[in-house]
Design a protein that fits this description.
The complex is a heterotetramer, with 2 copies of chain A (397 residues) and 2 copies of chain B (343 residues). Chain A has 397 residues and is of the alpha+beta class. Chain A is built from 12 helices and 8 strands. In chain A, the strands form 2 sheets. Chain A has a 4-stranded mixed sheet. Chain A has a 4-stranded antiparallel sheet with strand order 2-3-7-6, with no helix packed on it. In chain A, helix 4 packs antiparallel against helix 5. Chain B has 343 residues and is α+β, with helices and mostly antiparallel strands. Chain B has a domain of 146 residues: Up-down Bundle (Butyryl-CoA Dehydrogenase, subunit A, domain 3), CATH 1.20.140. The chains are: A alpha+beta (397), B alpha+beta (343).
Chain lengths: 397, 343, 397, 343
């Protein structure tokens, strides 16, 4: 074990911290899940990009710094410690980009990745449908072959699409083989939301923000290979859509993304350590006023310990990845742990607030947000099945 | 020995349930978010039925019932998430005023207010001046029970600072009192204040149990319909067991609430611990039911277009109001003779 | 609601208390699940019977007092409050007797019930088999028809038989119709353990006591109708065995018993209130020594509240039964609640004891015993299925 | 930055695991219940391998390793429920004596005892004179660290009062010291005592994690085989989810134990909170694993003929030893600046 950071890493941390201290907006921006807040967040995303903090671990050519995974951890720690804004670009950067890196053509990488890191294209995910939530393989949205125009025609409804009403593009699964069942016969499509036939309807999330959208596709045309088309206006529009990976192989591409969503990159430990630190501050403040019972203090202690445990566990995961070992189904361990830790951290804070807990404020807002953790990216019930079957080796049935 | 509602109590409860299902559907609660936090169609019907005056003495225009009669009705108010102050005004204030009726100083005003409560005026007790007070902006008066003094205050006597609650129907405010009529001091004031505080706690507990029941019913119905992986979600053991546990928590909280009502009605010397136990378990059970309901609903429960959040947010708020779980435990430690301050 | 006891009930309580105060052995008897302790417990059972406290709710003719269910509750409360010995006869009295009352012939009732209440016959249950635990319908022990001798020949192995090594009789299910599957084709047999072909082997339970037994039946003869046989010695022996209810109808008879086991009669609230009272005493003692943290005190508070809740819930159940309403599947509520409450009560006590918790003593012993609660009489996993399906109405699958 | 064992540490751990699986099967632990609470076949092999002397300086006949090397080996001791005092003597006493080696008063005796520990003699630290001391009857000496004084005591210097533990292999006794050789006082004594106490806590934490892992492995194997209702018990979601939760608890406790070892090895100023966090989570995780393992086994786990209880009872005992969860939380409250004594 070696828990020291190298001089390079320390310098990197210093650089992050200095920039963040100078640039993090104060007072905090309005929620990025409201229309006006989203605009302010876009400005922030572009400032991040200009200073090359948007995607530190990506290649420099795509707007990154070629930073190591350790440096990425440091960046995240500093980012949350500084109380910097939520990343409204995260669904693209954390969920779609890993699949583009793994399955995209060179043209797709060169086109999409710089536009994503600069917040030019804004991506939302189109996994869920009204009847396909936890059961992602039940997708019924379909894509029908259009040989005449050299592409596909998409029809169907996606829902629970986070920030869908504010984004420019959607990535998601559509059924290209009507005969194939379940996860076979699905293809991973990239769809511009301003394409003809797309309708987006925003609706309210638990916390009251218009954070969700339904996306309806009605005979939406997506071309096979927009990058080879002549450089006229229509083709340029087309260039923003296409297929990622092979036709009918969408499930594999999506699973790579889903693993990424559950795993390391979605929830860096810095986030929970920052929440734990704020919880400690709140508890100390109450303590100073003589209003902190031992039992409440113990709830803070337990949540703090678990945030530390999560950080350490992640260090172990990163060590493994850096040394070439795959975390595999252990990412389900992570997802269950961080999502329930996040709920406990916020519950402890609300308990400290007592009769003020119900009032609008960062802890109640954070609690509502935390409650989505055990549901999205595969409910924790699904995750526990995965842990039991794939990690522990219990019989599938 | 008989631990069950009487036939009359059951009939009254069923009547109130029918009325509330009719007058306070989820859309009415939703409308209260955008309005003034009231569902007047339900409130007026309850007034007409006599529920608001149930605890007001017959001499003052009420029905002269007891805690045991009214608490089951507050469970029904919880079941439909009625935001109106039935518990605060018709239960807590009505009982507290009862302690004042024979008093030379405050009796006249108390009789007057008792009659007005029965007719649907809202008198909100204030037992913790610092806490946000739900429904303050539409109150007709305040029964101010702070610092061993009882003051009857009109809206003109107070300054309101409206607050945003996670539950848009509650519309709380912090209240600063500038003037008002002192109606009791000393021992009598303490009795009045305590009568109000105990009923506020038991009233919230009753509503929480009703909320818990309702959320679980909604969830059972949803998971019985919702198909994933080719079967109803409710056929998965993980869903079944979560719901079974929450149902047990709510089922075992209810008798504690009944006992608290009984003890208050009979001035049982152990009433204090019974009230704390009732509020503690009603709070934890309703929170448990809320958490399980949200998780078993999945993403649909996470939207404001679906009704679950109306009930869930009320449960969150009430679980902290009039004695959060830690305050209840603290009181129980004292009641049970456990100082617990060693380390 | 009327929470007052009648004068008759108060007098009954006084009579219980006076007798118990005068007669409860002090110091406490050694565990009834050891051979020597069992003998001492038998003496106690006979003393209870002589004073007509063994089965207060039974008819006087069978050794009871025709006491009401309310009086039974009072008796139980006083019994546990007095710290009286465990009932080594309980499997007969609480599990078999209700089935004899419901399904037994008059001859069976007249023969067995007085011998049970006087602790002349000592009954153990023969539900579980090595491959039929939670899945009771998987019983493979069989009974083959012997028309020549007018009875059945039993072969098979029963296990986890509490106090089986010290008892005189076993009740249990045997398969009489080899063709019928699962719960069909089972018959409820009463078997004397000294019959030819029966072998009993005691083995150790978690707490180290020899509390369990395996019972092997090898061609054990049980007659159809022992009561009609001539009064010779062989017939007298036979008179102690037979069939309860109809042939092939054992499942219905057993389920009546199983409901009784899970429901009201097995775990009276007095037991948990007595434990909660002892827990409070322990906590106050620690508090007096300045060794009770608030968090520990809160665990005591929570357990105490739940013991009260259980008592109240039971009052509601008894009210319903007295007024002719069946508790039905709600008995599964009870079983889950009391069994997990019992664990929490003992855990709280061990937490108070800290580094002394591991030492031999009533709390560790009680903890070990409590841990069996969520397992026996249908695991709590099975109970939760029942609650979900039969009370909440969730789909069976 | 690297949070993982080195290849050498992994090799050593694997070697110890192989040795212990061979020398300390469940039957050996069972035999220790009836014997003197020792498994000498395993102990002697560990001595020969150098494990007992791993933390003894090379000058005193040991290997001069660090906490980080030895703690993973204690996890292995936990996995097989080895009852012998590897953590107490080879870890806690060895490190504590290290603090004495250069001291004029105690150095000679410390060097002597260090060499004896490496050769397999048992020196038990006593940091809480009132608590039952496991394995006291077979100890060769006691490192008495109480009241700012360190005393080396032989069995002749003490009176033992044997106690019955729920875990028959632990064979604890309460110990009263009558005589012995004072080897340190004041600051040095506090340093020695603290070094011993921290290692006792981390040693127990490591064993608890190993016990948790082992119980879960036994249970996974059992429920994969055991058929009920025509399918393996382990195919039921209720069983799967209980085991998943327990596995997660154990998996997230382990890094806290590693961190504590690292902090002790590097005299990190935050070592105190790391030790308390490690013992807290190792205790709660192992108790969690024990409860789930028993429940998922059903009745067979409730018998002494089956092996599970050997591990479960050890986990119960160790969870309370050298800092029970409440004591750990109390320490963490202080470390984190939360007095928490308001109500």
């Amino acid at each position: 074990m070696d828990l020291r950071w190298s001089d390079t890493e320390l310098a990197f941390r210093e650089e992050c911290r200095t920039w963040l201290n100078a640039n993090v907006p104060s007072p905090p921006l309005a929620s990025g899940d409201t229309r006006s807040g989203f605009a302010a967040h876009l400005e922030w995303e572009r400032a991040l990009h200009d200073a090359r903090w948007a995607v530190v671990s990506w290649p420099e050519a795509y707007g990154g710094r070629d930073a190591s995974l350790w440096e990425w951890l440091i960046f995240e720690e500093e980012y949350y410690r500084a109380g910097a804004p939520q990343r409204v670009t995260q669904n693209g950067i954390f969920l779609l980009a890993p699949s583009i890196f793994e399955f995209g053509t060179v043209e797709q990488q060169d086109h999409y990745l710089p536009r994503m890191s600069s917040a030019t294209d804004l991506w939302c995910q189109g996994w869920s449908e009204p009847n396909a939530g936890s059961d992602l393989a039940a997708v019924t949205s379909r894509a029908v072959r259009d040989d005449a125009d050299g592409g596909w025609r998409l029809t169907g409804q996606k829902t629970w699409t986070t920030r869908g009403a504010f984004c420019t593009h959607l990535f998601g699964l559509f059924r290209t083989d009507a005969e194939a069942v379940r996860h076979r016969g699905l293809t991973y499509f990239l769809v511009p939301l301003d394409a003809e036939g797309v309708t987006v309807r925003g609706f309210g999330r638990l916390d009251g923000d218009e954070g969700f959208a339904e996306v309806f596709c009605d005979d939406v045309f997506v071309p096979d290979n927009p990058f080879g088309a002549p450089a006229d206006a229509a083709a340029a529009a087309m260039a923003r859509g296409g297929i990622l990976g092979e036709v009918h192989q969408g499930w594999s591409v999506a699973m790579a993304t889903a693993t990424s969503e559950r795993g390391l990159t979605l929830r860096s430990p810095g986030r929970f350590q920052a929440t734990a630190a704020r919880l400690l501050d709140l508890a100390r403040e109450r303590d100073g006023e003589g209003r902190l019972g031992e039992a409440l203090a113990d709830r803070v202690v337990d949540a703090w310990v678990d945030a530390e445990a999560y950080a350490l566990y992640t260090l172990g995961d990163v060590t493994g990845i850096v040394e070439g070992r795959s975390p595999g189904a252990r990412s389900s361990f992570n997802k269950i742990f961080w999502s329930e830790l996040d709920v406990r951290l916020h519950e402890a804070a609300l308990d400290l607030l007592g009769s003020d807990a119900e009032l609008d404020g960062p802890w109640m807002k954070g609690y509502e947000f935390a409650l989505s953790g055990p549901i999205y990216a595969g409910t924790n019930e699904i995750q526990r099945n995965i842990v039991a079957e794939r990690v522990l080796g219990l019989p599938r049935k | 020995m008989r631990f069950e509602l009487t036939d009359e109590q059951v009939d009254l409860r069923d009547a109130v349930r029918g009325l509330l299902e009719d007058r306070c559907p989820p859309d009415a609660v939703r409308a209260a978010w955008d309005g003034d936090g009231r569902v007047r169609a339900a409130w007026d019907a309850l007034v007409e039925m006599g529920v608001l005056g149930a605890l007001v003495p017959e001499s003052a225009g009420g029905l002269g019932m007891t805690d045991e009669d009214v608490v089951p009705l507050l469970v029904e108010c919880g079941r439909v998430a009625l935001p109106d102050p039935v518990a605060a005004s018709g239960y807590a204030s009505a009982v507290a005023l009862g302690a004042l009726l024979d008093d030379l100083t405050g009796g006249g005003l108390a009789a007057d207010w008792s009659g007005r409560i029965a007719s649907g005026a809202v008198l909100l007790p204030v037992v913790d001046a610092g806490a946000p007070l739900a429904g303050a902006t539409t109150a007709d008066g305040f029964l101010w029970c702070v610092a061993d003094e009882v003051v009857l205050a009109t809206p003109e006597d107070v300054d309101l600072q409206p607050q945003r609650s996670v539950d848009g129907a509650r519309q709380p405010a912090t209240v600063v009192r500038r003037s008002g009529e002192v109606v009791a001091t000393g021992d009598l004031a303490r009795r009045v204040g305590s009568a109000a505080a105990e009923r506020l706690a038991v009233g919230a507990a009753a509503e929480l149990v009703g909320l818990g029941e309702r959320m679980l019913e909604m969830t059972v119905a949803y998971v019985g319909e919702r198909q994933q992986f080719g079967v109803p979600v409710g056929s998965f053991q993980a869903v079944k067991h979560q719901l079974a546990d929450a149902a047990i928590a709510v089922a075992f909280a209810m008798p504690l609430v009944w006992l608290a009502a009984h003890s208050l009605a009979h001035s049982d010397p152990d009433a204090g611990r019974h009230v704390a136990a009732a509020k503690l378990r009603a709070s934890t059970a309703a929170r448990h039911a809320a958490a399980v309901s949200l998780q078993c609903h999945g993403a649909i429960g996470y939207t404001v277009e679906y009704d679950l959040h109306l009930f869930m947010k009320r449960a969150w708020a009430l679980s902290y109001e009039h004695g959060d779980p830690d305050a209840c435990r603290s009181r129980l430690r004292a009641e049970l003779g456990l100082a617990g301050n060693s380390r």
